[in-house]
DNA sequence: GTGTGTGCAAAACGTTTGCACTGGA
DNA sequence: TCCAGTGCAAACGTTTTGCACACAC
């Protein structure tokens, strides 16, 4: 935990940004909730517990900054709020999401299934892939087991 | 064109909705700009040229309605606005997007590369896929040919 | 002191809603 | 006379911005 904060501190400093107490509190919240996809509001409420004097704008500014530095990834699941994920150190953070349209749950698949596709894109389309997003909308196992369909 | 409007009219009527002049104007704009991914505001401005008295709320309501009827698909590319695409009659409209982070252009790939993955999801994860979204961010061919990299 | 970073409040943004009105069955 | 559909304006929730202040170097 401390080591990871230290690392992020260095990432900031390498671009002449400081790890202020507010930024550190924000990062800690992200670290403590790595499993979730927190919205800015979520982060704000959690940060308030650690550092009650922080302002919402600061949280937004911090998340934006961390996003630019590729410390977090800004996600958009089409529900009207941006969500923020810490980028895992390892690999290129290419995972996929299963979004249940019934219960709203979200599951992650950590495998990257798209590498062959990306190679095809480079060759057939001349498109150099930096990142991708693959989300599936559907019905999760739990919901399937307790309903008859309507879509 | 007229045939396609007629078809949409029937889709509406089958659910007891009417193809009002405003709705028709909206549909015409969508048909005439099938290649683009128009935002509600885009649609509004284009509809105004045909039917200047229309209100933005009506456009939103129409797009929402068409979306519910699966006449259009509501897309989200994470740029803060919803975009709307006519669903092509054929197939399940499973295509993918190449979004250039340099020039903002967007190209569509009409092939569906994910069918094998969806089968895996059903079997390994018990997740029933209704729809998916696959977007690649990167540098398009045109931009690549006229720059040195920085990302 | 000069700077970056901050809190607050106000603004901006896309979108939705309330409401009175209209126009066709 | 209904009642779905509409235009307008106001409300909404998220995000951004302006500005004066704080605090580190």
UniProtKB/TrEMBL annotation, chains A, B:
<keyword id="KW-0238">DNA-binding</keyword>
<keyword id="KW-0862">Zinc</keyword>
<dbReference type="InterPro" id="IPR036388">
    <property type="entry name" value="WH-like_DNA-bd_sf"/>
</dbReference>
<dbReference type="GO" id="GO:1900376">
    <property type="term" value="P:regulation of secondary metabolite biosynthetic process"/>
</dbReference>
<keyword id="KW-0678">Repressor</keyword>
<keyword id="KW-0804">Transcription</keyword>
<dbReference type="GO" id="GO:0000976">
    <property type="term" value="F:transcription cis-regulatory region binding"/>
</dbReference>
<dbReference type="GO" id="GO:0045892">
    <property type="term" value="P:negative regulation of DNA-templated transcription"/>
</dbReference>
<protein>
    <submittedName>
        <fullName>Fe2+/Zn2+ uptake regulation protein</fullName>
    </submittedName>
</protein>
<dbReference type="InterPro" id="IPR043135">
    <property type="entry name" value="Fur_C"/>
</dbReference>
<keyword id="KW-0479">Metal-binding</keyword>
<comment type="similarity">
    <text>Belongs to the Fur family.</text>
</comment>
<dbReference type="InterPro" id="IPR036390">
    <property type="entry name" value="WH_DNA-bd_sf"/>
</dbReference>
<dbReference type="InterPro" id="IPR002481">
    <property type="entry name" value="FUR"/>
</dbReference>
<feature type="binding site">
    <location>
        <position position="143"/>
    </location>
    <ligand>
        <name>Zn(2+)</name>
    </ligand>
</feature>
<dbReference type="Pfam" id="PF01475">
    <property type="entry name" value="FUR"/>
</dbReference>
<dbReference type="GO" id="GO:0003700">
    <property type="term" value="F:DNA-binding transcription factor activity"/>
</dbReference>
<feature type="binding site">
    <location>
        <position position="140"/>
    </location>
    <ligand>
        <name>Zn(2+)</name>
    </ligand>
</feature>
<feature type="binding site">
    <location>
        <position position="100"/>
    </location>
    <ligand>
        <name>Zn(2+)</name>
    </ligand>
</feature>
<keyword id="KW-0805">Transcription regulation</keyword>
<dbReference type="GO" id="GO:0008270">
    <property type="term" value="F:zinc ion binding"/>
</dbReference>
<feature type="binding site">
    <location>
        <position position="94"/>
    </location>
    <ligand>
        <name>Fe cation</name>
    </ligand>
</feature>
<feature type="binding site">
    <location>
        <position position="132"/>
    </location>
    <ligand>
        <name>Fe cation</name>
    </ligand>
</feature>
<feature type="binding site">
    <location>
        <position position="103"/>
    </location>
    <ligand>
        <name>Zn(2+)</name>
    </ligand>
</feature>
<keyword id="KW-0408">Iron</keyword>
